[in-house]
Amino acid sequence: MRVSSYPLLDPDVAAALVLERTPVLDVEPVALADAFGRVLAEDLVADGFLPAFPSSAVDGYAVHAADAGQALRVLGESAAGRPFAGAVRPGTAARILTGGVVPEGADAVVMVEDVTLAGETVTVPAGLRAGSNFHPVGADLRPGERILAAGTQLGAAEIGIAAATGRASVPVRRRPRVALMSTGDELVEVGKKAGPGQIPDSNRWALLAALREAGAEIHVLGIAPDEPEPLRSLVVGALRDADALVTSGGVSVGTHDLVKPLLESLGTVLVGRVKLKPGKPFTFATLDGGGVAFGLPGFPVSSLVTFEVFVRPALRRMQGFAQLHRPTLPVRLAYDARPTLDRTEYQRVTLRREGSDLVAETTGSQSSSRLMSLAGAHALVRVPAGDRVLGKGSVVEAMILGLP
User: Fold this and answer.
1) DSSP-assigned letters across all residues of 354-377
2) Domain boundaries, the chain
3) I want to staple 363 with a disulfide (CB 3.0 to 4.6 A). Which of 64, 163, 311, 348 is the partner?
């Protein structure tokens, strides 16, 4: 065992350092068909009116509001995509369908349910108001107005509005390319028979899912050997095409913990230990080739908690997200949350609703090796270091992983 030379950093200090040194990736145009989940790199600004013409909101008749209460001669029809060619003069009307262009001269649309029709004459009700039942030009957008802000993640509505304003493609930040590996001779591939003292490599599969959810493109390296030169060769080769390296295991102070020394030889280790439970050995480095590396602890819960606290926000920064962190909500504790004297702790909880409150219940033993404490957890409750117990009934902020 070695004594670590790295200072123990406060988690907030470490998180700020990670974000400060994580680069934002370059911009690429992406077709709308491939834009779901991507992040806008630039503001999207309207270059025309939306709608571009006055369009009916209902099926009915386009009329002059001043003709309220009168019988009007029907001149023709305006359907969606087939406008009425003439103008609506006083004493006349045009049949109009939803989405149809309101003809020249008309200033109101009467719903078909509110009229009386006799042959080619329509009687409209009294009390009509100009502007009724149609969308005026520019009601949604005018030239120069911002449609979507840079940093917006593109979902169904956002892609729809981009299409409605004529964009066939949008400028987005590139997805981060991440090389993912596990370390440790004690690991065996899932599905293969474990030898003496070996365990299945669960971390890689958990992190693979977490990386995909965070928007990364992943190159899976497998299990790296606990030998310096083969490990170095594997990592150096992977970094040629990667923006980031994510490893699990090998970042503590044992004689077979080789990740920190390797990262020291490839760049600068900026974070080597954190006052965090679970996750004290978390490591972050900038690489001489321009990328970054995240060395996550080998215990399963430590690996996933440090991913949530440090890695996921960094990957979102790379993609240009305006919002880097998961949302937090106030929750009421249904248990006594006991602190760790010298480290901030993220305790795993499930949530239930009681009236207007979200109530947090512990998932049981908070051991860093017990992955069951995270399976099904809805949130992480941050318990500050010290000796003050957060008693049952206390209201605290929780990082929301998913609501019940």
Assistant:
1) ETTEEEEEE-S---TT-GGGTTT-
2) 8-26+174-318, 27-49+139-173, 55-135, 328-400
3) 348
pLDDT of residue 156: 98
pLDDT at 253 over 90: no
Are 152 and 162 in contact by the 8 Å Cβ rule? The answer is: no
pTM beyond cutoff 0.85: yes
117, 135 in Cβ contact below 8 A? no
Among 150, 157, 187, which Cα is nearest to 172's?
A: 150
- Determine the Cα–Cα distance for residues 274 and 268; give it in Å rounded to an integer: 17
Q: What's the whole-number mean pLDDT along residues 246-273? A: 87
Domain 27-49+139-173 fold:
Molybdopterin biosynthesis moea protein, domain 2 (3.90.105)
Residue 237 is given by DSSP the state H
Here the tokens at position 27 are: 């911009």
Overall average pLDDT of the 93-101 stretch: 97
pLDDT in tens, 346-361: 999 999 999 999 999 9
Amino acid letter, 355: G
Residue at token pair 């480290």: 343
Q: pLDDT digits over 137-183, tens only?
A: 999 999 999 999 999 999 999 999 999 999 999 999 999 999 999 99
Mean of pLDDT over the chain: 95
pLDDT in tens, 29-39: 999 999 999 99
Q: Residue written as tokens 């249904």?
A: 334
Pairing of strands 92-96, 273-274: unpaired
Taking the domain 8-26+174-318, which CATH number applies? 3.40.980.10
Length of the chain (residues): 404
Select 55-135's CATH number: 3.30.1320.10, 3.30.70.920, 3.30.420.10, 2.170.190.11.
2.170.190.11
Q: Identify the DSSP state of 70.
A: S
Quote the CA–CA distance of 73 and 58 in Å, as a whole number.
20
